[in-house]
Amino acid sequence: MTFSEPASQSPAPQTNQIRPTFRSGAVARLAGMPVATLRIWEQRYQATRPTTAESGHRLYLAADVERVILLRRLTEQGHAIRLLAALETTQLHELMHPPEAPRQTALRAIVVGQALARRLQRLCDRQPWAPALQIVAAFDTLAEATQAADNSARPAVDLLLWQAASLQPGARQELRIAQDACRARATAVVYRYSSAEGRAELTGSGVALLHEPSDDDSLGQWLASFQVANAPAGKTDPTISSPRFDGAALTEFAGLSSAVACECPSHLAQLLLQVSNFETYSGECANRSAADAKLHAYLQQVAGAARMLFETALEHVAIAEGLPLPLAKITEIGRAI
Prior knowledge:
It is a single chain. The chain is of the alpha/beta class. The chain folds into three domains: 16-96, Multidrug-efflux Transporter Regulator, Chain: A, Domain 2 (Orthogonal Bundle); 107-229, Response regulator (Rossmann fold, 3-Layer(aba) Sandwich); 247-321. The chain has helices at residues 15-18, 24-31, 35-45, 62-76, 81-84, 89-96, 114-126, 142-150, 171-182, 196-203, 216-229, 247-256, 264-284, 290-321, and strands spanning 22-23, 51-52, 58-60, 107-112, 133-139, 157-167, 184-194, 208-211. It has a five-stranded parallel beta sheet with strand order 5-4-6-7-8, sandwiched between helices. The radius of gyration is 29 Å and the shape is elongated. The N and C termini lie far apart (79 Å). Residues 1-17, 231-236 and 330-337 have low confidence and may be disordered.
């Protein structure tokens, strides 16, 4: 008995992979976004390139659906669609799961004032994100800190932080002696009571001052500013980009959006203009001392980060309302930022 060779069977076609079968409405539902937004992304940024059926419907591959979902999730995280649209899908995946950022180097500090040291330790334990602080040693008085430093080979520290119950004129000399002995790069004072003369003496010497707050959050924010202020000279935060829109474009956009029933576009444009102006002001503000310069550098960075968030929010609102975005700011060589 002989058997004939079985007829070769071709693999079943994977329809959703080799032929576009998803309509725009289905893609938008899967991504959790309006169809109008999907259309704007395609027309303005070429984020996807669907085919058009004889019926006039736009049809998408499964790979297109995956890409749109990635784009949607990344824009919700604050990324700008105009930048995402130029990336390959593999790059979008990498952006969704970036490598872990290196841990911020802790600020090494000597604390004078046991109560403040315990409070700072409690703050770090409860809120590990801020400030990144390592308490090298804690003492009751500046004299004790000076004596201990003189009798040890402890390496230099970033900060000498003194909790002063009463701040009076003449304190600067004792603080300077302790700073030199501890080899501290900077000094700061948290005080409870103070005379105007005592504060003026230390401020004029570049010492950072803070009236001791009752809440830990304010104390943590103040200490976090030292990590920005003590960054190496000449280095700026690479995550802060240049402004995308200039004042004229934002003013024009605010006027255009006034015809829309929702006034969020106009309010956003005005807020963005104010934040941008404050960012510029902080960078150009006159500085009376080294501590003053550090404070303004910190304010400029905070304003820049806020400005970037408002720029992304403005783009989202413009797309949702079908409004033209303000023209991007042009550099001196004529290239859009």
